Amino acid sequence: MSKLSRPQIKSIEVSCDHCNLPVPSGLIEPEAELQFCCAGCKAVWQAIHGSGLGNYYRLRASQGVDGTKVRLTGRGYVEFDDPSFEELHVEELDDGTKRTVFLLEGVHCAACVWLIEKFPSIHAGVLEARLDFGRRTAEVRWQPEQAKLSAIAHGLDRLGYPPHPFRGGEDEKQRRLEVRGQLIRIGVAGALAMNCMLLAFALYGGWFHGMDAKFRDFFRWISFGLALLSVVWPGRVFMRGAAAALRTRTAHMDLPIAIGLLAGLLGGAWNTYTGQGEVYFESVTTLVFLLLAGRFLQQRQQRRAYDALAMLYSLTPGNARLMDGDQIREVPVTSLQCGNLLEIRSGDSVPADGVLRTGKGSFDLSLLTGESKPVRLKVGDRVHAGTVSCSDRVVMEVERTGAETRLGRLMQLVERHSNRAAPIVHLADQWSGWFVMTVLVLAVANYFFWLQTSSALALEYTMALLIVACPCALGLATPLAVAAAVGRAAQNGILVKGGDVVERLSHPGILLLDKTGTLTRGEISVVDFAGPKRAKSRIAALESHSSHPYAKALMDAFGAAERNITDSTAGSDGGDSHVDTREEIQGSGMRGVIDGQLCLLGSMRFMNEQQQHLPAELKHAVEQFLDRALTPILYAEDGLVIAVAGLGDALREDAKESLQQLKASGWEIGILSGDHPRIVAAIAKELGLQASQCHGAVAPEEKLQWIHKHQSDPNRPVVMVGDGVNDAAALAAAGVGVAVQGGAEASLAAADVFLARPGLKPLVELIQGSSRTVTVIKGNLLLSLGYNTLGVILAMGGMLSPALAAILMPVSSLTVISTSYRARTFRAAE
Amino acid sequence: MNLIYLILPIALLIAAGFVFAFVWATRQGQFDDMDTPSMRILGEDDEIDVGPAKKVESNSPGTTD
Description:
The complex is a heterodimer of chains A (830) and B (65).
Chain A: H1 39-50, H2 55-63, H3 83-89, E1 90-92, E2 98-104, H4 110-117, H5 119-122, E3 126-132, E4 137-142, H6 149-158, E5 163-165, H7 169-209, H8 213-232, H9 236-248, H10 254-274, H11 281-315, E6 319-324, E7 327-332, E8 341-344, E9 353-358, E10 361-364, H12 366-369, E11 375-377, E12 382-383, E13 388-389, E14 394-400, H13 406-418, H14 427-451, H15 455-468, H16 472-491, E15 494-496, H17 499-504, E16 510-513, H18 515-519, E17 525-530, H19 533-543, H20 549-568, E18 579-585, E19 589-594, E20 597-602, H21 604-609, H22 616-627, E21 631-637, E22 640-648, H23 655-664, E23 668-672, H24 677-687, E24 694-695, H25 700-710, E25 718-722, H26 725-733, E26 736-739, H27 747-750, E27 753-755, H28 761-796, H29 802-822
Parallel strand pairs in A: 16-23, 16-25, 23-24, 25-26, 26-27
Antiparallel strand pairs in A: 1-2, 2-4, 2-5, 3-4, 6-7, 6-8, 8-14, 9-12, 9-14, 10-11, 10-13, 15-27, 17-22, 18-19, 19-20, 20-21, 21-22
Chain B: H1 4-27, H2 36-40, H3 47-50
């Protein structure tokens, strides 16, 4: 009789050798040197080491980043060799080599750049692989005689980077040209500003020590030329913005900037021409440069959002296997029509909505419904695009395609809500609008006041006022603080797409979380196991030929045990398991004979039916599993149950602590899940959340309604945290959508924030960092407003000459820049 | 001091040369990806301890003649 081990309640922390995530307790192999959390990680580890690229792990460790859980598709990528695919995505170069661009899943750190760019050294025929980290695209060049594209794609897949054809299109090219244009403007403005400044220093020198009028005028004319160039070339964007503001009669930031630029340029030109007074060309050019640079930083975030959208389009399946009589052809999804018969193989994602015609099998609906357990479908049942077949080949008839499918409609919801007008008017815009109006009114009043004394003085003091009141610091305050905070957040693995997110997260509201993949890991695994080790290998032996999703989880957990046992104890008692018979009892479990012993594996009901005895100790374990919403799978030998495995979706380690921290700071927390209400209730209880706020069996469309329902109070932002396409519409509609690591990369497109580190701790950091950032922004605005107000008062009192104003003006900008970058907005949560 | 009439335009011409070099480089796409190059440099000098990488498919020519 074997000894029974006590059911483990809490696992010892063992991390996976590939991805560094904790290994579920059921999967830990005490004897093994290397530990893996899943079969995918193990396969990738072997692939990387087998190619002599073990340096990847060292490089990654030096970066202080963890890996991500591997998604191995194991696909053959045969459609990549199809001539129609080549025509669309492959470019033939003059030297006979071919080139294509892939979008890669799973790229997350500098070590990935190294690994992918080392790809040519491990794959014959591949000449070059260049990764663009920001866009997650890899440009691959290869020798068509030596390597097939399908083999290259499979090779990348084996390293843990499933490739997709990149479909950026025309839009992408257009955006790239736009970014280049912005960069050129910044560069030119910078060069002009620096040269102007050099000349200005000579003029300052002349001011103090005296200078021949002819040299002074020469320097001034050259400065004027540079400033004119700066205003008409890079500075044109402000003129255009100001003109638009005038047309629509709104007080836009560009208006005072344009007035200030023109006043500086024309006033300086007049003084240069008449050979008296002061010139302000260096302030004009520096202003153009600083403002352009500030805007570029701000728009960087928006560009990231576009990249994510391009990724979304590339991830949806592009091909389907059409059955044409006896033949099967790969066709593009766009050519599918109602009534077409499609073949779906195991692991394929369904390309259209339709009805199952032959074969039956389990489908992973998690993309659409968030349900963690695969669902069994039979002939006549409806299947939806985006779901993944887990079992053998099935045939389906197409009913709806493309945008008509449920997935397509969800995507449309995502797009519509992503383009929504921001309900919050930016703090800075609000303030600077008023500020601009005030300054303009004051300038006019000032001019007429001093006109009574002298017209030359009136012009000079008004110009000083316009220059010193230039809302440069005011305009820089928000984008700079946000850019600094977002940059710091990115270093901590929190990718924020827009600055408004930071503003919205700064005060507590309602936090709604998805369960599967967000609070939990998102896949069925063996969470807990009670019983002797010997049972593991037998369970694996029984399940080794089954395609049931539970069997997969058990095999992932115990498959290694099976080998270890036979290897280490070969010949001794209980060694080399020999399976005599094995049969699957549909919907109940497995029955087999191993080494002459009758072995049964299945649910409680199945054990009762088969009249297997359940000892009290294991009965206790089963009840405990049920309380934790785990599915118990029992294993019996010769009429006696000796082991129980608890299968389920394990809760993330830091979930409870993180949520309690947020609750303490005033957030209201709820769960919106597509999973069974009973499971949701168990999770809510474990996390200490109010049951009334936690809802199960919520369809994707209903999640959207929940969001709308909570959005009544504008002062309490609704934050949705999720991971899948089923959350996408809700993520887009919520005040702030947060996608978590490990989820479908598609949810990135809909979310405003992506947490690139596992768990919920980054969420706490995000929320705390946001409120700190808003404090910095408010401080900056007050500082620059106070500074400008003081300057305006001095100028109106006639105590400020334009030259002094031009020297003082950049000081406020510099203050704002230093407070923005000095502030420690984002840091790891304690 | 009159030399300044010559030197200043020359200095500006040199500056213009650099500006055009920058514009040209930008139009060539040199600044399209500003994230990856900083990471690429990390992995470049550790070839020595890796040893020769194995090829997935052997492409060493056999004695075909």
